[in-house]
Automatic annotation (TrEMBL):
The chain crosses the membrane at residues 12-36. Belongs to the 'GDXG' lipolytic enzyme family. One of its GO terms (molecular function) is carboxylic ester hydrolase activity. The gene is NCEH1. Keywords: Hydrolase, Membrane, Transmembrane, Transmembrane helix. The active site is at residues 196, 350, 380. Residues 118-267, 319-383 form the Alpha/beta hydrolase fold-3 domain. The keyword Glycosyltransferase does not apply. This is NCEH1 protein. GO terms for cellular component: membrane.
Length: 410
């Protein structure tokens, strides 16, 4: 090769490298600017929130490509389970449902005294997530509360649609209530809890045990719902509308709607109809609409009740939207009364904020003891983000207050 050729080739390569570097820097800058400009105002620790948002958006994009290429739902391998030096962690099957049992050392104070118990249902839109992924959080709860915590590996949608995930959680709960003493647990001190879709499952299980199975099992001691998803009736609540405007850090409105549909019937052509409430337009004057009344969000405005109760059935493929075990906010007032002591946390920068507030208000009106805790600058998923590199003070505070509630009330 002549020196001229070498020179041209080198320059060509250098030019291409420079061009690619510049293009990717520009691309990264545009992506960052987009993320930052659409970050909800007053979100906690915005610089870190921005990194989380960039990470989540790239992840969702890859998951979308993965699915479009025909590989199904992307469910990455979770990191190996942590070691919990002060806990005994065992795999078990509760009537066919896989669980992990986290057992703290028995307290030595009161002789013969049994421990409290908690069933934990993880989040992930009924579609992703696992007991392995939640190992850190669940171990922390067991350690901080001194309760035996059962983390439930319910089967996931869309392979297993409603009611399977719900029924798995119910089966595990009933098993634990019946076999509590085998785990050193007092059956009258058992609660259910979960975050996001897990909060939905916990609320549904509590409703079901309060209704049909009252005589067969000891009543639950409490339900603790962390930014729960509780209704698929109204996707235009103020917190959803705000989510359309500002593009949330972790959970955008359309993703939540996709999760609901995968749990319901996996018919993705319904996304647009759902997002503008076309699926429930005919029910605007029904009592169901009064269950998701926006007046609940304002302390001063009295609740409006429908003049007439139109009874229109939804088509078979979406009728479970009105089923309280699918969306607990659809429960009748009579079925809410008698529910156990309830703890609900909501984040101000979360599209699911209003689901939690409405449920807490309805429970209160039904005479249930309920504590609604708001984290105005927090966003969806933040309670899981308590260690580096994703570390948020608000998340840590939520985690601590959640554990304190459980310790004091179980
Ligand atoms: C929680 O973990 C710490 C450190 O491993 C331990 O000292 C403590 O006893 C644990 N508490 C409970 C209730 O298991
Ligand atoms: C999906 O929903 C659309 C719109 O409601 C409906 O026309 C279609 O028949 C549904 N597809 C299936 C497979 O149920």
């Amino acid at each position: 090769m002549s020196p001229v050729c070498v020179y041209r080739l080198t320059m060509g390569v250098l030019g291409t490298v420079t061009w690619l570097t510049a293009a990717s820097a520009l691309g990264a800058a545009v992506f960052a600017a987009y993320l930052y400009s659409s970050l909800p105002p007053d979100v906690t620790e915005p610089r870190k929130a921005l990194i989380v948002k960039g990470f989540m958006r790239s992840h969702f994009f890859m998951a979308w490509v993965h699915e479009k290429m025909g590989f199904g739902i992307m469910r990455p391998q979770p990191p190996p389970r942590a070691s919990h030096p002060s806990l005994e962690v065992t795999d078990a099957s509760f009537d066919g449902v896989r669980v992990l049992v986290y057992k703290p050392p028995a307290q030595k104070t009161a002789t013969e005294s049994k421990m409290a118990g908690l069933l934990w249902f993880h989040g992930g839109g009924w579609v992703i997530g696992s007991i392995d992924e939640y190992d850190g959080l669940v171990g922390r709860i067991a350690n901080k509360t001194g309760a035996v915590v059962v983390s439930v590996e319910y089967r996931l949608a869309p392979e297993h649609k409603f009611p399977i995930p719900f029924e798995d959680c119910l089966t595990a709960t009933q098993h634990f209530l019946q076999h509590a003493s085998e785990y050193g647990v007092d059956p009258t001190r058992i609660g259910v809890a979960g975050d996001s879709a897990g909060g939905n499952l916990a609320a549904a299980v509590a409703l079901r045990l309060n209704k049909d199975d009252k005589k067969k099992f000891p009543p639950l001691k409490l339900q603790a719902l962390v930014y729960p998803a509780l209704q698929a009736f109204d996707f235009q609540t103020p917190s959803y509308v705000r989510g359309h405007k500002f593009s949330p850090v972790v959970l955008p409105p359309n993703l939540m709607i996709v999760f609901w549909i995968k749990y319901l019937n996996n018919n993705m052509s319904l996304v647009d109809t759902f997002s503008n409430n076309g699926h429930t337009a005919a029910l605007k004057k029904s009592r169901f609409a009064s269950f998701v009344d926006r007046d609940f969000l304002d302390e001063s405005v009295p609740r409006s009740t429908p003049d007439e109760d139109v009874s229109i059935d939804l088509p078979d493929d979406i009728k479970d939207i009105l089923n309280p075990y699918f969306s607990p906010l659809m429960a009748e007032d009579a079925d809410l009364s008698g529910l156990p002591n309830t703890y609900v946390t909501v984040c101000g920068k979360d599209i699911l904020r209003d689901d939690g507030i409405m449920y807490a208000k309805r429970l209160e009106m039904a005479g249930v003891q309920v504590q609604l805790v708001r984290y105005p600058s927090g966003f969806h998923g933040i309670m899981s983000m308590t260690s580096e590199p994703f570390y948020f003070e608000v998340g840590k505070q939520m985690d601590q207050e959640f554990a304190t509630f459980l310790r004091d009330h179980l």
